[in-house]
Batch of 3 targets.
Target 1
Amino acid sequence: MAALFTEDPLFRRIRKHAEQRLAKISKEDRGTRTKAYKKFLTLENKMLRRYHRQGDSGIRVTRSRAIIIDVLVETIYKDAINEATKDSKPPYKISIIATGGYGRGELCPFSDIDLLFLYPDTLRGRANKQYQEKLTEAILYPLWDLGLKVGHASRSIKETLIEAKSEVKSKNAILDTRLITGDRGLFQRFSRAIDRFLTREDTSHYLRERFASQTARRRKQGDSVYVQEPDVKNGVGCLRDFQNILWMSRVRFGTGDFSAILKRGYIKRARAKQLQEAYSFLLRVRNEIHFRSSRPTDLLDLEAQPLVAWNLGYRQKNIFDRVETFMQVFYGHADVILNVSRYLEAKLAKSDLPDRTPIRFFDVIRAHKGLSEKPRIIDGFVFSDGSITPQDQNVFKRDPVRLIRVFRHMQQYKATLNLDLKNLISESVPLITRRVIEDSSASSAMRAILQSAGDVHRALIEMHDTRVLGRFIPEWQKLTCLVQHEYYHRYTADIHTLNTIKELDRIFNERDRLADQYRNALRQAQYPNLLYLILLLHDIGKGIAIKNHALNGVAIAEPILQRLEVPEDLRGQILFIIRHHLEMARFWQRFDLDDPKTPESFAEFVRDANQLALLYVHTYCDACGTSEGLWNEYKNTLHSRLYRETFEVLKNKSALNDQSRERKMSAYETIKERGITDISGDEIEAHFSLLPERYFVHHTIPEIELHIRMINRLLTNIHEAESLGSLVPIIDWHDDLERSMTVVNVVTWDRAGLFYRLAGAFALAGLNILSSKAISRSDHITIDTFYVSEPQGGVVENPNARKVFSKAVNDAL
């Protein structure tokens, strides 16, 4: 630790200067000394402020202040010894030890000064006790007189260890200790005792406790780096996250720095340097907050941000531009700390640790019978025990589209990304080039991610944390770390957007009054899951400006929808909601709902029940994702009343039917123009005339073409066959890797119980049915589509499954 204060010429110069000035002050009487000490601290603080304003790093400034306080404590200690002993020999020696942040040598301008007065374990007798009290007061009173906030404890080595055993905060404090002055031999015995204590303690318990504590603290702080008013000390991705890594390393490896972490290859040296630079930047921000407020505050509130940004060198004249630029840098550094600290916490809490969890009899039986899940290799990834790991380090280099598909696999298999895989994904982000962005299979995988009702937020937050989301949708990247200068918004634009998606997941998953209410409304929409894509893009216009962001969002979103290959008839609905996503709340805030003309006017504006349902649920998710408490029962009542009454107005209108007819005619013209090899125009026309309009709404052009070919094969078999064998169904299997499932189409004659027989055949084949749809032509030919997976999820890989299914279907029919 001493090397920290000699490695830099600045530190040596500060110590020498302080020692020279304080040596003169020490010769004065007590009253004069106090005034002189105050003047000394005032001048030293001005010097520190000057270093800070000149651009010195946060680490340098905090260590410089620690040195100044060190010299002050040393001087006061010598004076206290002289006063307590009256030139006689002290009855015993003590050590004055810095703990906590001061012990790390990081002391912000108005931070607490934590001291431990360490006494020998053999201390006995009333006289010795009186000497202890007298000496302690002689040191503390001058420090208090100077206006310093001093936390202190007077203990022996034994008492210190007992306290550390009983209270985690005390244990953390002794992990950062440093001798300021006093008996070096006593301090060395103290250091050895701590090392023995940490070795003998239940290391795994402490590390897991720290891991759990960090999770709880982050949740309390909003579980996001991107809050509008971050707490620089205790916020998510802030100073405490970095410090926690050092505590865990101290307990785990016996050294509270990055040397052991680097030696074991947990992170690369460049990443460690990036982490330390981020930490130093946050210290610099904290120093500025302290200097500005002249008190130990850690909240970077909205009022402080413009001046803090200016004083740290962000000199844009427009106050909003200045704050945005500064806060984006702040969030970027905090994001580095959060991602690396989460990764290292998990590694330190898990890796190589003896597991003290009791072994259960059931676990032994499972292991003996080989019931644990066997690893599976799919698309270059290893799936085992609910975790995904890369098959090798080149998995993304061989196929960069996997950088999108891996999140669909995670979603489909209900798995988590292994820490090393997350790290590899982050490092591989540059592989997402324009070719990947415009790749059809990548777009298909992204659409599949956004269609998995109830489980979208988990995938998108991982994509965001690994920087894949902003890379794959470059327009969305502009929302990252974007401060929203609006009263109600607590989060940056990117996190607000992801929070709205989290709220939609809740609507699909939970069973409470509000979730039921909005889920029932979504059922009125043709494509309820379409709302995920709408929410993802609804604030995309804020990348240009907050003002008119809804209108700007339409222009930005349209090429994104084309790139993602969203069907053209759906793009209009999406763009309508983006353009008007604020209108429903404005309507019930502005107009009288008791007036019958109000729902009529809104019905004329929204046009159809489908768009009404999407806008209704969108408005609720948008508000809930803005800040806690923004939505209340009164707003919900007005919002729901406008929805119900508008829905009644629209219920008898035929706009939805008109859209279905338009979709059917568009599909017919497209297929007729393209043509299908060896199939007559009459057969194509018959297919369109024999099916209801809803079929053409829910099927794509390639699916319709496939069904026409399958029906042609069925009719050909009937014409050529001489027996009932012609009734054998036509089956088509297609692996959809992007959506991590297999699509099975079955075309045959309709008959009683057909659907249940097909479902039973899949069960015999050992496959899971994820979803299905069935429709019959008026000539009794039925088209059944099943979306299936292996029992553990994913595409059907078992070669026998198809044979078993086909045999079961033939036997049943």
Target 2
Amino acid sequence: MDTFFQDIRYAARSLRRARTVSVAAFACLALGIGVNTGVFSVVNGILFRPLPFARADRVVTVQVTDAERGVLDMAVPYGDLADLRDAGVFAQVEAFTTRGFTVTDGDQAERLQGAAVTPGLFALLGVEPRLGRHFRADEAGPAGFEQAVMLSDALWRSRYNGDEGIVNRTIRLNDRPVVVAGVMPPGFMFPETERIWVPVAAADPTDRQARYLLPVARLRDDVSVADAAARLDAVSRRLAATYPETHERFSFAVTKFRDVFIDLPARRMLLLMLAAVGFVLLIACANVTNLLLARAADRHREVSVRAAIGAARGRIIRLFLTEATLLALAAGAAGVLISVWWVEATARAIPEEMAYWISFGVDRRVLAYTLLISLGTGLVFGALPALQASRIDLQTSLKETARAAGDSRPRALLRSALVTAEIALSVILLAGATLMVQSFLRLQTANAGFDHDDMLSLRVLKSGDRYDVVPARTAFYRDVTTGIAALPEVAAVAATSSIPADDGGPTVMLWPRDADAPIGVTTYASTEHFFDVLGVNLLRGRAFTALEVADTSARVAVLGNRLAARLWPAGDGIGQLIRLTEGGSEVSYEVIGIAPDLTYEEFGEVSATSLLQVHLPYARRPYRQMALLVRGRGDAAALERPVRDVVRAADPLLAPFDVLTMNDRRRYTTWPQRLFGQTFATFGAVAMLLALVGVYGVMAYTVNQRRREIGIRMAIGARPAQVLGAVVGRAARLSLVGVGTGVLGAFAVVRVLEGLIWGVSLTDPIALVAVPASLLAAALLAGYVPARRAARIDPVEALRDE
């Protein structure tokens, strides 16, 4: 133990003596370890941190898939819950569905995101209310007939002032009285950011038609996820045989709870970020290794003296590794501070509220990760200098000068190889970063099929008994759109079920004439003037009239151009009939118009089905929640207050929400791509900077080591231009090898970006030609600076120094 502390004291003194090298190495490592710790904090918070449930590793979800039709991740009908409970693989099965609610007691209505849950769900999760009790089974009911409500801690404090007498009090939810069963613990917002819950049950417990519930189950202790999936196959086959109309071709998929909310592309992107900062750390390690190799060469005589007085090779290696590890641990401590700043900056760049079980803090797992990579990097960059320095020929080493003894060809080749590797890794990282940035820029400028300038969008949920009937809903939108259209600053207004470039729509089956099988299409409902608001002219035919919008028996449709061309390649389709599956039967619609295709899904999430579009009049799809699109004559943001006033005048109990201009919505829906693009660009810039520092460092060290040789050459007639060319030529060779290797690596590595970028080819010439060429030019410039210094060496001074 005394020897161990002696080594630490010696290492600290040694690092203090070489302050310049130590500070440079510390800065490189702190940056590399800091960004690695920061990214791991984010990845850990999203993918690895245990969920706040009791025995969270046993909590799963059950989804329904139809691979034949390409329908994935569907919810289940209420009646399927009994079959899942009887499957023998789960200790408990519950379910939920997210819903919007409007709290209508008090002076002002407040719209909240919430969920309807089966009464036993909170007990399954192992979460107890902070006040009150769990839901009772007799309080559950279908939408609008629940008898109880559970409040989040935040809602209880903000709306009810933390009144502990709230339990068993009656409040009005969606303009109906419900009893407050309890208040959930602080921070609980299951499944993601919900603030209010009601107990759900079906009007018909045997219902197999309406798919709206996502089951949450706890696996039995003796059952794995794979076992549960295999045994549910038999259940899905039995249901398909018993209920062929609703369950044919469907199968169950068992998934970890977290995986439902963090999809595969997001997981891939997060892990890709972790790999990218790994590249940055490797480049930093290469730089530090080069610095320590140079310092080891300068310490060659010192090490030889130690060996001469009896120091074993293992002892010398341990001294060097102790220095490297001490340096890495100090850099790791600074890296934690850098990571805290980086995580805070990342959190500020995320415009939406994250799921309550996601936290980006630096916890014990993150600190353990930082300690691990600090020790690992210390061993990685310290091993080569230690091994090189410990190879000693005492007979020659003590006779030579320190500079001559340390300047061996193997060490020079190793330093060159490390710089080449740095450049190659930088090219790979920069190529990927360039693709990510270009993808974001393409998303920002992509054409959604309509003019999104000067347009305000907002959503309205029509809750309460008065909207149980369709005429009341259509009358509401007639009054609201008429009132908004009368505003002098408004050019046009319409209500729609889906906001283009933000929302998808429900998939239904369309039966082409004389076809044996249907095709999946996406339906959208709207009021009159919908296409006017978007600034879109129909290609053929006409749009809906006000009478058709309010008529539940209207059988008219406007088709997207892509779908029309598929159904009638030789005709325009106007006057033709299409058949849509509705409620288990087929309903015919007359095609009255052909519209240009719009982008409804967020860019990058467009599916083949969402491009086959059927527009229906509102009364045919009278959803309670709709969006209002308002085309202004100027600043769209200025429309918010007068539009809210019109909605409030039509019904004071309704609270508009998600109010954004379409330009802001466009920026909002592309924030992940912007964040990932900026992050990868930052990593690429750091990698490039480290690589250029590496090129400069190696060339500067080479010039310093060869100072005497250069002086002699110049003394016997070598011109400065020849010296300059020789040094720059070596930098060029290193850079060319590194860039060439990096381009080959980039061709292979960027394949992992497939499906993660939009509108950019993986073989994009900017990423794979222009960026490497730019890095090559910068590397040559980095090599030119020490080369220019070499060309100015005074032969007399160089020989006198020796």
Target 3
Amino acid sequence: GDEILFYRDEIKDGFRLHNLPLNQTLHHDLCLMTQATNFGSLILPKTAIEDIQTVLALINAKIDPMALTQDFHLPRLYEALSQLLPLSRKYHCIVDNPPYMGGGNMNGILSDFVSKNYPKSKADLMVCFMNRAQYQVLDKGFVSMINIPSWMFLSSFEEYRKEIIEEYGIDTLLHLGRGIFGSDFGTVAFTFIKNIDKKPNGIYRRLFEEHVQVRSVENIKSIFLDKNYGHFETNQRDFLKITGISFGYWLSLKLINRISESIKLDSKFDIVAGICTGRNAQFLYSWFEVQKSNLWIDTEKNPNDFTFKFHNKGGEAKKWYGNHDYIIKYNLDSLNNLQELIGFRHDGQRYYFEPSISWSKITSSTNTFRYYPSGFCFDSAGLSIFRKDRESDNKEISYPLLGFLNTKVCTTILSVLNPTINASPGVIKKLPFTESYPIEIEKIVLENINISKQEWNSRETSWDFQQNELIRMKGQDFEESVELYQAFWQKKFFQLHKNEEELNRQFIEIYGLQDELTPDVPLEDITILKEESSINNGQLVFDIQEIIAQFISYAVGCMFGRYSLDKLGLVDGDWGLVDGVLSPEPLTTDHQKPNTKFLPDADNIIPILDDEWFEDDVAGRFKAFLKASFGERDFDKNLRFIEDHLGKDVRKYFTKDFYADHVKRYKKRPIYWAFSSPKGSFTVLIYMHRYNPDTLGKILNDYLVEYREKLGIRIENLDNTVVTGSPIEQTKAQKEIDKIKLVLIELQEYERDILYPLVQQRIKIDLDEGVLVNYNKFGRAIKEISGLNDKVTKKKVAAFDWIDSSLIQ
């Protein structure tokens, strides 16, 4: 309705002036009408209809339609009472599509109003309107609506659901899922009857399998027309047995009873969120960004002696083990800084560095649970589970619990406790669980952890990476190594798949759900080998190009001395290394070990150019690495195999693809940096951990200037061809001359305007400030990466108040 603009005293004055009866309830209702556009039909009049009709008749008798002027009170009072009348009536049927608004978005007046008048449904305006309709319908009348299904499950509506179950009968409910209104939040249409004894069993339709599915309207329609799809007849009083009184209409009575009878997870376990910094860019990094000596790795040492700790920040869908990507700047000094930040929270501190079961708060698919060993902090997004009765010498996780959490049984229960894809600690703690399970379950879970751990550590982005898998397999030649790789990991993949199905079978039997669930696990749900394989027509298919790209990335690591063919893991202690990385001083022959298979680059600068202009050119270095790792005898065969699967020669791969692959592999925090002229005619790679203030000068003097000189010599040779060659040779030579001249102009401008000014500054980097800050110290001299040093990101970095922003170029 429209707002009636008058003050409380004016209401009383108008009634008194015209000698109209005004009781306390009518005055209350008229005061509410001053907020008609704010409250709308949520206004629930207390005045009896007969009293409103009486006053309306009296006012109508006093209004003279022929009068030129009218007392200003009467028309407004008449309008207000006219709107109160339909709000006071009760109806046989109410049909509604209510407005949606969470409590946090309501204005203060509206929030106070719904808190007072709709305490059980106040968390969302749409549920308040459901509540309002129920008050306004006659006995045996119908309430029918379409809205978002959050009211069926969220804990904030638990009391409201109880009221529905006890006072109203659910006649029909159509759970549509997502897609009716595009990429929506899901939709439900329903009809309630105000008489629960009349119809105890309701008819329910569930037109989807997973809550994340967004389907076309045509697809939803075809499913709906299949009367057998997702059809349930359920007694709504069974919902009272489900934790949180969720509307799990698709659950069997057997499972509902099991949920209600079992003890809840939080009786034996603490389910907690961890630290929230409020400023992740300052405190969170990928582990490979910082100095090794500042990272707490050896848990036998005092953690306060180290700046950084490993940090569980949730991450991608990963079962059993993994997502060990991040570290956090967390010691006594940084903690003092953290506590001053807006948004800082420190929940779960008492559990830091203990083994845990964890899952990601935010996910795009089914929740996946994994094991974290000791030594980790954890995040508000890396939610974690710990034993309550842990002993000082035994704080390990419950392996049967981890097994249960990754089964279909748990997924089915979670689908009703929390139908969204984001499971909060409050939801997980309601899960039913007991540790009285067969010993085989623990053995299976441990094997799953070990397989997933081995797969996680097979990548160089893992702290515990030892060596590239093709080197580890070491077949007779490169192709055989690839075949051995596929055979080995296919066996691991299907063992994990078999184990997951066995866990499903065991827990389905434990919960007595053989008639409802099958143990089958889709191959797509196995969470290892996602980067290098896919499922096609029910088959595990490996991406050989990705396997080769991983090998090439490892080769570049060996070129820079990060890894070695002579030692597992990150290199430490060889070739004049300091703190796990090569000394910034150039290597000499004195540093070369007698039996070194492949010596790293001496000056930490490796050119990536369109031809072999330098001896330590990346393509030449890769070929040398291939010989060192797989032998010279089959070198040509091995190189041909690699280039056939890359679809190009290795030089073109390095000039066109390598850096993009590296940036993606290291999630826009590259450790090898490309210093490149604007059009990419000149590019060299350096390893950030070996950078020093002399590096740019060496790039300029030892590579850029020398490259220009070599191009000049090339032009001289081509000039001779233009004079002495055949017509075809002359034309070809002239085209190359023209191209080189453009390159020389590019290089001259790059040197004069970009690189030389930076050389003069002798820029220093602080590894413990991370890639985001340090990469942006080199302006246009370094290759632009969206999300790292583009204009928008650079502006954000320059605004960081914990760095010297004058260093951002």
